Amino acid sequence: MFLNQLGITMINLGDLCLGLYLIAVSFFDQMRKVSGDYCQKRYEWYSSTECSFLGVLSTTGSQLSLFAMIMLAICRVTTVGRIVLQDCRTFTSAVKLGILVGGPIVASLMIAVTPILPTFENYFVNGLYYKESPLFLGTVSKARHFEAFKVYFGENSSSWNNESSWAQIRSAVADMFSRGPKEMKGEKIDFYGNAGVCIFKYLVRTDDPQWGFSTAVLTMNCLCFLFIAISYIAIGYITSRSSRNAGRFGGNNRELNAKIFAIIVTDFFCWISLGVVAFLHLVEVINATSWYPYFSILILPINS
Description:
By secondary structure, this protein is an all-alpha fold. The protein contains eleven helices and two strands.
């Protein structure tokens, strides 16, 4: 019973994170509409700390809800919950409880925070934005930087390639504008700055540096859905069989089956539909880049 309540609390916490994300996105959207300058300042938004924070918040919420449901499914379909709680004072039971409870939280935070860590910026940063530069407009990728370096540095630019770090690129840009009135500093547009709604970068192509990470996370989420669906179907079957053997029928089984049906359907429309769209985008059957607002407002909240 304790683990059941704890799992539900974790799901509610994930739902709260996603709800706060939706409120914040709506707030910033209204702020931009009032100011009327979103088109002019959209790259400032993509590269802002607020956008990165909202991305972490939404990803943490959606992943925590999913992983907490995995924990509940494991505890309900096996005897793990009873084994752990037989003697919570032993070290082994405490470790098992810590894994069951801390695992979903730590995994969710790792997935959400990893893309914005400076250590991994060469993998997750999509480009740089220069606020007041007539030379670099919009999101400036590595390739566009290299084109400018080729013109400015001449033969000395031959060593630039995709393995060059963003720190090296920033240093080269600073050298280009060293005689200017102010330092030219590029703000990084990270993993969550791929759209105005600042969510996880589910839609990638094979030429995108982050496609492996995005595809792995989304594939894992779809597999989690399958595990949850199979587990709750098994729970419904075992419960129904036990009731028949005991000669009990009625409302309790129907209520349980209705809950199981709701869990499976909502998770299906969230993760499987998202997975299908992301796959079709990956293999270039469709271009769903403009669909991010629908994912953030309609699809991800279904999981909550």
